[in-house]
Amino acid sequence: MKEYAPACDRNQQVILDVLEQILTRSSFVLEIGSGTGQHAVYFADALGHLNWQPTNKEPLDSIHAWRDEANLENLLAPASLDLLDLHNSTVDTTKVDAIVCINTIHIMAWQGTENLFSLATNVLPVGGLIYVYGPYRYSDRPLEPSNENFDLWLKERDPVSGIRHFDEVNKLAQRGGLELEGDMAMPANNRSIWWRKS
Hints:
This protein has 198 residues and is α/β, with parallel strands linked by helices. 37% of the residues lie in helices and 23% in strands.
């Protein structure tokens, strides 16, 4: 069944504007947390030089539906990947040279973020890139009021979720040999952040 998320329509173009700049050297993108599948279709269509591999926790029905309708040669069939249960992943990571993860880190338990960066360290080649999008806390400024409310909502929904501290995420990246390359303000108090494997 094809699902629809209004947030995807709101942020897909501004995210694409960033991806067009930073994925010029990439050829195979692993998208983690593809959700409905809307982003996968939008980005694969706009970035025709990339093979785009969408992944998500089961079920994958909505991603299949969006992909079938789009009929794009460079958009691969969705694969199962749960960052809290990587042993059961069905993804072939041998060709991956970029990872994209949008609005996922604040939804899952912290262990998932640790596993995300461990995965990036293990599968990305030298020069490979990981990009994340979403809200973050920073030690040099207070969290925006809209994000404070969002963080409360997230924790009421699931106590292990919540807006993460940039410094803690960046430490995970650095520990895995990933160097911060960009951190850009985005609409609605979100951030585009990316690291490259050194």
